[in-house]
Amino acid sequence: MNRAVEISSMGIRVDEKSLKEQLSKANCESRAQLPFHKMLLEGQLPLTMGGGIGQSRICMLMLNKVHIGEVQAAVWSNEMIDACEARGVHLL
After folding, report:
1. How many other CB atoms sit within 10 Å of the CB of residue 84?
2. How far is CA 9 from CA 6, 17, 52, 56, 57, in A?
3. What tens-digit pLDDT sequence spans the chain (92 residues)?
4. Do residues 38 and 61 touch, judged by C-beta distance below 8 A?
5. Cα 25 → chain centroid
6. 23 contacts 32 by C-beta, under 8 angstroms
């Protein structure tokens, strides 16, 4: 494909601020009382780092695919489906 491909993602997965925001946006504030959520919101847990090599990204690289939808099933908008079909990209 003659372009760079990101195969790894690293970062803090959730902190107090982002968890509050996510719960609010999802209208699930009651989940703040679940054990993990509550401990994180009260500062009782360390922030966790996530990262590694994504299986779908490795599959894309090995199979020379241009869209992640060629190696993993998902729901795509009609616009994305049409754009991919126009370029010969077959989404799962």
Report:
1. 17
2. 8, 21, 6, 12, 10
3. 577 777 776 766 788 999 999 999 999 999 999 999 999 999 998 887 666 667 888 888 899 998 989 999 999 999 999 999 999 999 99
4. no
5. 17
6. yes
Q: State residue 30's pLDDT score.
A: 96
Backbone angles phi, psi at 49, to 5 degrees: -95, 140
Residue with tokens 């992640």: 68
Q: Partners of 53 in the beta sheet?
A: 8
Of 44, 43, 41, the residue nearest 22 (C-alpha): 41
| Residue-range domain boundaries for the chain | 1-53, 65-92
